[in-house]
Amino acid sequence: MTDFQHVRMVEALLFASAEPIDEGTLAQRLPQGIDVAAVLADLRDTYAERGVNLVRRDGRWAFRTAPDLAAALTVEAAVERKLSRAAVETLAIIAYHQPVTRAEIEEIRGVALSKGTLDALFEAGWVRPRGRKRTPGRPVLWATTDAFLDHFGLTALDDLPGLDELKAAGLLDARPVLSSYANRAGDQGEPVDVDEDLDEDALERRAMEALNLG
For a surface tag, which of 16, 49, 76, 203 has the fewest beta carbons within 10 Å of its beta carbon? Predict the structure, then answer.
């Protein structure tokens, strides 16, 4: 039986440490000749049925939440993403003119589109690659996702506010870029040739390619 005072000392050291501790470090803090392994074994048995367990990972010891309680302690936190003006304009252009290429987005906005803008929208899950336009260079086409509809409370793309609604809300006057786009959005233009929908694996490969090269 190990000395209870030594068990208490090791217990305190483990709780006070921000990182797991190896047996050699513990031995340095205990009286010479103490069997650290025996003390740890005793302490592990003591906490075996408690809310925290003493566990050994890569030769070091630490207290960790009991595995059967992990689910009960999971905390989900909502993280707000504040989009830049460029990202908002880009999302609006994609929503109203999809599928659309990067070059077409830049033409409508009148400025170059930074790679980070599409990255932010892609990571938010609001846009995705929708194939490639069958023109020289086969540029990636971008479209919105179901998550975009869910986030903005839309049943379908047909629920997007029309030109008259945007004008009534004052958005077109306040956002010249969207105003010039809205006037253009009603034009039919040339038909866009879109690849067939991609399966999940192909979509992931295309997405990475789009973000790196698109």
Answer: 76
Q: How confident is the model at residue 163 (pLDDT cuts 50, 70, 90)?
A: low
Is 116:209 a contact under the CB 8 Å cutoff? no
Q: Omega of the bond prior to 99 within 30 degrees of 0, cis?
A: yes
Given a contact cutoff of 8 angstroms between Cβ atoms, the answer to whether 86 and 97 are in contact is no
- 85-213 domain in CATH 1.10.10.10? yes
Which CA distances in Å does 134 have to 78, 143, 169?
40, 16, 37
**Residue 181 exposure: Cα atoms within 13 Å on the Cβ side:** 26
**What residue spans define the domains of the chain?**
4-73, 85-213
Q: Measured at the alpha carbon of residue 21, what is the angle toward residues 15 and 24, in degrees to the nearest 5?
A: 130
Beta strand ranges found along 58-185 (DSSP E):
60-65, 100-101, 127-132, 140-144
Span 31-40, average pLDDT: 90
> Residue 182: phi, psi to the nearest 5?
-60, -40
For the domain spanning 4-73, the CATH number is 1.10.10.10
Q: Indicate if 85-213 has the same CATH topology as 4-73.
A: yes
**pTM of the complete model:** 0.47
Beta-strand runs (E) in the chain: 21-22, 52-57, 60-65, 100-101, 127-132, 140-144
Which of 5 and 199 is assigned the larger pLDDT?
Answer: 5
